[in-house]
């Protein structure tokens, strides 16, 4: 079984925050597969499904972003999932809005949720799918920015991005990181070619 963990803060007031794109991406994927999230006995909501006979679990921690690692630790311990079979979907201020990037492992990049996961697992060897939220804020206003809501036009663009991230998540479920990387590369090449065509070059 493989796991996909979204990073975000629980509660309706945070639902459409920039910091919650991980939750929103998982909600989108769950909806495409007719899945519902339910509470677990641990600090996360979860949903189990199957794609091409490959089982998976989606999880949304209830610990708030800064303590996401507690939920991830309990999740992989209970389901006995190897670290490399956990894909974390997370927001990233270092990427342009609605862009996305796949990484096999690495540092937390200044994200408290990733820092918590690395600390609790004592490992940074888990793949992560980062979704850009931009960095249009003044120095010292990071917290206010990531906890601000997307507007309607931004949400529309975000859900277009989720069509791509859902395909990447599906590839991860079916074939693990290598399959996921292949799908990611294919999508990125398609987008690059589309951009060239639209620019008339």
In the sheet with the most strands, the strands line up as 2-3-4-1-5-7-6
Please give the radius of gyration in angstroms: 16 Å
Query: Care to count the β-strands?
Result: 7
Low-confidence stretches: none
Shape: globular
* Percent in strands: 15-25%
Work out the helix count: 5
Q: Which keywords apply here?
A:
seven-stranded mixed beta sheet, 5 helices, 43% helix, 201 residues, alpha/beta
Can you characterise this structure?
The structure is a single chain. The protein has 201 residues and is of the alpha/beta class. The chain is built from five helices and seven strands, in the order E-H-E-E-E-H-E-E-H-E-H-H. It has helices at 21-32, 68-79, 112-121, 142-146, 152-198, and strands spanning 2-6, 38-39, 44-51, 54-61, 86-92, 100-103, 128-132. A seven-stranded mixed beta sheet has the order 2-3-4-1-5-7-6, sandwiched between helices. It is globular and about 50 Å long. 39% of the residues are buried. The mean pLDDT is 95.
